[in-house]
């Protein structure tokens, strides 16, 4: 049994799960306590080795391979197959996981040394996956797909994921605002607090310096290859708008058009021709002409684009001017880093003018890039 | 003080039954493991699925006290572990001033247990018998607190400078819950056993309703369980919890509603959904959800 267990743990590590030595020891102790009855064994090993529900699929598959269900050991007193209802519901839990909840009829929890018969519990894989669990596994996969390889179904599925990430982003921003750097000693408050302590200043008050709320201006490239990334970026930025003083969102292909969010849909203020060919230089010039008033020392300017300029003039001088006029200029590039500066991409020309250039080719990277550029700011 | 009963699977099962906490065998196994291995248990899952309840059930099962530490942003050692009662100490010093005492005598008085404000963690460590320590919503606290918690959980030992080191005579049973609003640190996760507690399936929810709202009609109960189950699959800001489902069942009973139909649902939907957007989104789906619920309630 011990060797089998060690094999199992090594298989988990090969599959990408991180299992520490301490957890392996716990697993051995757990097996000793719950016994080798299959379902209890799986639950016991999961409790000690599986620390994130998103890894459930991998864990179950590895368990299947390592401890296969032997046909002839079907147990007695098995529960009948779940009725058609549960399995046809698809996303719902398999009925096999649901016990008959009348308390007296609970099956025995095997913990003694006698190996009890294996309980037949229906299809093993479905048993352990609830709909939410599967959702988490799916989300992890979605987070790591590069934008260029996403299918339309993936894009649909991402909306919920984006909503959740937006909430996490907001929580992060809120925390940043709270942790104000400690300022100078606030004499008045210290004395006031010392009154209740009989005149002894036990508690000292400091005039916390709150980081000022910046403005945010985001320019999103909406040309065909990058449109998905822009959509997700707006999905992440929009719920966080209360943490910035002013938020302005622009979409562009060859012309910057301001957009606003109304009732969950994007509403461009003017007509945006999505089939034009990208012209970053022109966009920057027009933006500077028309919207220079939006930029100030307090503004963070985000540009999401692949810097593929169709061999038109890049106008990096305008970008430098924009960078000088704002607090920070951050460029997010949704292409994988290998593809930068290939073909008609002028990334290195623009790079010199930016304060920060970040890769954002998957949702995970996009989220991390936003946190990095907007949070300490 | 009660002697803690022996840890057996039967104890766990009967404890869950007595508390009317209906759940799957996996949860029973993991609870039993946590008690037998004496390791902390980390329970993650959506809000309202019954994570906090497990702490209370464990306390009842072991016939012991539940010490609860509710975490929030900015929770620090002073509010979680201990704090000196400054005001009382100052008053004592003022009172002693007349007596003209030596400093050593004064310290003897004011740095005693009497002047120590015991917060939940210290209370759990110094308890004369084994207690259940429930650290609720640990994902709301920040990373510094997690690091501090890790230290406490590994040794169950606290050094109070003036009083010395306090070691726990009986290691408490530790249950941590998290709503997954942020990723917990690896170190904390590695130290704990893990349980993902999701909302129950239709059958279990039906039985929960039967236990907690006994005089509800059986067919209606089935419809309620299926309706709530379907509602949870929608994209909502806040999915209805088990407690809210029970409230709804009680409301239907109080209003003497015999059967679920669209007007009855519309009238009482705000017991299940607490956000305006969710109410609007569900409003359109009531018809289809009802159809599914009715079709399967044979």
Outline the fold blueprint.
The complex is a heterodimer of chains A (377) and B (298).
Chain A: H1 2-14, H2 21-34, H3 38-49, H4 56-66, H5 84-89, H6 124-128, H7 131-144, H8 152-178, H9 187-195, E1 215-221, H10 227-237, E2 247-252, E3 256-262, E4 265-268, H11 280-291, E5 299-304, H12 316-325, E6 328-333, H13 347-351, E7 356-359, H14 363-374
Parallel strand pairs in A: 1-2, 1-5, 5-6, 6-7
Antiparallel strand pairs in A: 2-3, 3-4
Helix pairs in contact in A: 1-4, 2-3, 8-10, 8-14, 11-12
Chain B: H1 9-18, H2 25-37, E1 41-44, H3 51-61, E2 66-70, H4 77-80, E3 82-84, H5 86-97, H6 103-110, E4 116-118, H7 120-126, E5 132-136, H8 143-155, E6 157-160, E7 164-167, E8 173-178, H9 186-191, E9 193-196, H10 202-212, H11 218-232, H12 242-254, H13 262-268, H14 276-296
Parallel strand pairs in B: 1-8, 1-9, 2-5, 5-8
Antiparallel strand pairs in B: 3-4, 6-7
Helix pairs in contact in B: 1-2, 1-3, 10-11, 10-12, 11-14
Walk me through the structure.
- The complex is a heterodimer of chains A (377) and B (298).
- With 377 residues, chain A is of the alpha/beta class.
- Chain A contains 14 helices and seven strands.
- Chain A has helices at 2-14, 21-34, 38-49, 56-66, 84-89, 124-128, 131-144, 152-178, 187-195, 227-237, 280-291, 316-325, 347-351, 363-374, and strands spanning 215-221, 247-252, 256-262, 265-268, 299-304, 328-333, 356-359.
- A seven-stranded mixed sheet of chain A has the order 4-3-2-1-5-6-7, with helices on both faces.
- In chain A, helix 13 (347-351) links the parallel strand 6 and strand 7.
- In chain A, helix 2 runs antiparallel to helix 3 (38-49), helix 8 packs parallel to helix 10 (227-237) and helix 8 (152-178) runs parallel beside helix 14 (363-374).
- Chain A is flat.
- Chain B contains 14 helices and nine strands.
- In chain B, strands 2-5-8-1-9 form a five-stranded parallel sheet, sandwiched between helices. Chain B has a two-stranded antiparallel sheet with strand order 3-4.
- Chain B is elongated and about 85 Å long.
- At the A-B interface, helix 2, helix 3, helix 7 and helix 8 of A face helix 1, helix 2, helix 5, helix 9 and strand 9 of B.
């Amino acid at each position: 049994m011990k060797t089998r267990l060690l094999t199992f743990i090594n298989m988990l590590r090969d599959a990408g799960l991180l299992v520490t030595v301490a957890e392996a020891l716990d697993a051995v102790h757990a097996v000793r306590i719950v016994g080798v009855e299959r379902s209890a064994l799986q639950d016991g090993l999961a409790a000690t080795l599986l620390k994130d529900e998103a890894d459930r699929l991998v864990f179950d598959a590895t368990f299947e391979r390592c401890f296969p269900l032997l046909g002839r050991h079907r147990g007695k007193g098995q529960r009948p197959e779940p009725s058609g209802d549960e399995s046809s519901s698809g996303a719902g839990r398999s009925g096999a996981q649901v016990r008959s909840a009348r308390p007296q009829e609970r099956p025995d929890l095997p913990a003694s040394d006698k190996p009890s018969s294996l309980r037949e519990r229906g299809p093993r894989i479905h048993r352990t996956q609830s709909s939410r669990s599967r959702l988490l596994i799916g989300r992890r996969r979605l987070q790591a797909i590069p934008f260029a390889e996403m299918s339309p179904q993936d894009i649909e599925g991402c909306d919920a994921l984006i909503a959740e990430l937006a909430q996490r982003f907001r929580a992060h921003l809120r925390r940043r605002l709270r942790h104000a750097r400690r300022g100078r000693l606030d004499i008045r408050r210290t004395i006031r607090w010392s009154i209740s302590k009989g005149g002894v200043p036990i508690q000292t008050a400091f005039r916390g310096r709150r980081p000022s709320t910046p403005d945010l201006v985001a320019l999103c490239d909406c040309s065909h290859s990058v449109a998905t990334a822009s959509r997700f970026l707006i999905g992440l930025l929009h719920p966080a708008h209360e943490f910035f003083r002013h938020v302005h969102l622009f979409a562009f292909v060859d012309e910057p058009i301001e957009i606003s969010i109304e009732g969950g849909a994007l509403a461009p203020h003017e007509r945006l021709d999505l089939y034009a060919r990208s012209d970053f230089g022109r966009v920057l010039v027009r933006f500077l002409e028309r919207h220079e008033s939006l930029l100030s020392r307090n503004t963070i300017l985000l540009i999401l684009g692949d810097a593929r300029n169709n061999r038109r003039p890049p106008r990096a001088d305008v970008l430098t001017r924009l960078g000088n006029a704002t607090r920070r200029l951050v460029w997010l590039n949704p292409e994988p880093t290998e593809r930068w500066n290939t073909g008609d991409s002028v990334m290195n020309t623009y790079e010199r003018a930016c304060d920060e250039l970040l890769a954002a080719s998957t949702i995970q990277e996009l989220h991390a890039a936003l946190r990095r550029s907007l949070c300490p700011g | 003080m009660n002697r803690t009963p022996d840890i057996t699977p039967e104890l766990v099962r009967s404890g869950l039954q007595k508390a009317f906490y209906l759940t799957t065998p996996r949860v029973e196994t993991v609870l039993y493991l946590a008690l037998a291995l004496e390791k902390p248990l980390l329970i993650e899952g959506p809000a309202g699925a019954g994570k906090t309840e497990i702490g209370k059930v464990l306390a009842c099962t072991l016939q012991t006290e539940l010490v609860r530490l509710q975490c929030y942003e900015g929770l620090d050692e002073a509010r979680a572990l201990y704090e000196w009662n400054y005001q009382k100490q100052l008053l004592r010093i003022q009172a002693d001033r007349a007596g003209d005492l030596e400093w050593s005598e004064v310290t003897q008085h004011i740095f005693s247990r009497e002047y120590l404000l015991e917060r939940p963690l210290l209370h759990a460590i110094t308890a004369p018998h084994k207690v259940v320590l429930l650290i609720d919503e640990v994902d709301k606290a920040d990373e510094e607190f997690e690091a501090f918690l890790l230290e406490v959980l590994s040794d169950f030992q606290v050094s109070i400078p003036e009083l010395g080191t306090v070691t726990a005579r009986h290691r408490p049973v530790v249950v941590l819950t998290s709503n997954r609003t942020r990723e917990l640190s690896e170190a904390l996760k590695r130290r704990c056993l893990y349980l993902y507690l999701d909302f129950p399936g239709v059958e279990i929810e039906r039985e929960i309703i039967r236990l907690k709202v006994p005089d509800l009609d059986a067919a209606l109960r089935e419809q309620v369980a299926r309706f709530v189950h379907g509602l949870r699959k929608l994209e909502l800001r806040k999915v209805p919890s088990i407690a809210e489902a029970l409230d709804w069942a009680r409301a239907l009973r109080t209003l003497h509603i015999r059967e679920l139909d669209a007007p009855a649902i519309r009238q009482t939907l705000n017991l299940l959904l607490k956000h305006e957007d969710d109410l609007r989104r569900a409003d359109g789906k009531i018809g289809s959800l009802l159809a599914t619920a009715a079709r399967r309630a044979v």
